[in-house]
Amino acid sequence: MDVPSDLLYTKTHEWLRREASGEVVVGITAHAQEELRDVVFVELPTVGKAIKQGDPAAVVESVKAAFDIYAPVSGTVPRVNEAVAKSPQLVNQDCYGQGWLFAIAPSSSEEFSRLLSPEEYARQIQASTH
Questions:
Q1: Does the domain spanning 8-110 belong to CATH 3.40.1360.10?
Q2: In Å, what is the CA distance from 15 to each residue of 63, 109, 130?
């Protein structure tokens, strides 16, 4: 199970990485993309959009179903990954790298305490697969 130790996670299978700029980059976890299987479409939020923690921010569609991607923290969207909109399969090929979805300029640092550590997320996945 691929759960990088330098990221934070949500219960709904999003990951986020804090950048030196203060932004956070958001994507879906290896577990989520494995469940989805072949991603065929990604709908990204608009740049400049204000989003709230826990609200739907993007949509990822596979051959099986469409899933909302929730904002792990509140803030504004400064940029999105246009490459993934053009080539949705990047989500399956490199979910923690080139398959990232969007960035957030966080409006509050206290929301980070509600996120899961890599260990907590790994336990959640193990519990759901047994």
A1: no
A2: 22, 16, 22
Instruction: Give the pairing of strands 24-28 and 56-62.
Output: unpaired
pTM over 0.70: yes
Residue with structure tokens 């790298």? Answer: 97
Contact indicator for 121, 2 with CB cutoff of 8 Å: no
* Residue 16, strand partner residues: 8, 26
Q: Is 54 left (phi over 0), alpha (psi -120 to 50) or beta?
A: left
Q: What are 110's strand-pairing partners?
A: none
At 10 the pLDDT is: 97
In which residue are the tokens 């950048």 written?
19
